[in-house]
Amino acid sequence: MIQRNSRMGVAALVAVLMTGAAAVLLMGCGQQQPGTTKAPTRVRTEVVAASCAIGGQMYVGVVEEAEATAVSFTSMGTVRRVLVSEGQAVSRGQLLAEMDDTQAQNMLAVTRAQLAQAEDALARYSQLHERGSMTDAQWVEIQSKVAQARSEVAVAEKNVADCRLVAPVSGIIGRRTVGAGETAMPSQAVVTILDISRVKVKVSVPEAEMAGITATTPTQIHVEAIGRTFEGGTIEKGVQADALTHTYDVRIRVENKERALLPGMVAEVQTLPPTSLSGREQSPLRASVFSLPMTAVQRRADGSLFVWTVGTDTTAHRTAVVLGETVGNRVVIASGLAEGQHVVVEGYQKLSEGTKVAEN
User: Fold this and answer.
1) Quick check: 280 pLDDT over 70?
2) How far is CA 112 from CA 107, 116, 160, 184, in A?
């Protein structure tokens, strides 16, 4: 009996020791080792920037070039080389491509030889004509041959020049459809030059909302791809509706001198309501407001709202905010933020007060 109790006591002691060892091991694993630094949490942020007051209607549109110019050779031939690539900026008069000009050069040499022969004949027969040894009809025929030869030389020189394809306008190479070694056909586009110094944002507007849009309706355009907001310019209204959707194409001109906007980018277009003073329509409302994606706003247990901001010390902080109007997937921040602050819009689930962060 005593022996049995002794065995039970030893077993209990071993169990306690093993439990203690496991606890120490877990504590050791959970604690950061001296001399190591925890990697900052990676988040995506959005810089708070003032924008125009939100109101009116919201549309989703696509950026288009102001004008596209298809550039092609005027004759058939084998392309020797193409000197530009897609996305490259080109200037008017810049050489874009060359075609094999061997045949054109040969024809030019033949026509120049014929011209030299005709001019030599003209010089010799002119003396006979002055002495009256040839009729006026013969003299006119010789002069005509010289004129014809000169015309043929001019045509041959143009054919040689046409083997060089130059840019008729300045812009950006949008698409290159022919490469070196391929046969170019007349009027087949070799490259397309896009004018994106200004662009157009095309949106589809329901027929019921067309009456509220004029050529001077103020608009605000936000492009998420580059994180920037632009002020829209003159509006072009389409006059033919889509048969299925009953919407009209509306294009908004936007200045793009920095060439930040590229064709194909998706844009959020917000029409802005005008403000009225003394019963007259005045300039559009331009009250500065801040807006953020709705998902960036968090709620505390007590119901108060906040966003995660990144301080100058690269740490995350809860910042209380008051919300305003909601438009699409964004919400106006009525108060709580200042222009230039960095707000976390992705990765906030991993944050706590004072967390070190790395911004994307």
Assistant:
1) no
2) 9, 6, 13, 27
Give the per-residue pLDDT at 327: 59
DSSP 19-40: HHHHHHHHHHHHSPPTT--PPP
Task: Identify whether 90 is part of a domain.
Answer: no
Q: Poorest-confidence range of 15-24, 40-49, 285-294? A: 15-24
Domain count, the chain: 3
- Can you tell me whether residue 111 is helix, strand or coil? helix
Task: Provide the angle, in degrees to the nearest 10, between the axes of the packed helices 136-161 and 102-130.
Answer: 160
Closest CA to 284 of 298, 273, 268: 273
Which tokens hold the place of 118?
């005709």
What is the b/e burial string over 1-29, where b = at least 16 CB atoms within 10 angstroms of the residue's CB? eeeeeeeeeeeeeeeeeeeeeeeeeeeee
- Give the pair of three-digit tokens for residue 147: 């004129």
- Whether 6 maps to a domain, the answer reads no
Distances (CA, A) of 255 to 133, 169, 191, 215, 221: 74, 18, 24, 16, 11
In a domain, 167, yes or no: no
Q: Are 310 and 278 in contact (CB under 8 A)?
A: no
| pLDDT tens per residue across span 80-90 | 999 999 989 99
- Residue 30 falls within a domain, yes or no? no
How remote is the C-alpha of 198 from its chain's centroid? 12
Do 262 and 322 fall within a single domain?
A: no
Take residue 28 and report the two structure tokens written for it.
Answer: 């050791």
User: pLDDT class for 91, splitting at 50, 70, 90?
Assistant: very high
Residue-wise pLDDT tens digits, 282-304: 334 344 567 888 899 999 999 99
Taking the model in full, what pTM does it have? 0.52
Position 64 scores a pLDDT of 93
Cα angle, residue 246 at apex, residues 245 and 250 outer, rounded to 5°: 100
**Token pair 């996305």 is at which residue?**
87
CA atoms of 250 and 236, how far apart (whole Å): 6
Task: Using the structure block, give the residue that is written with the tokens 């026509």.
Answer: 111
Angle (CA) 58-61-66 rounded to 5° is 130
Range of the domain at 214: 58-67+197-280
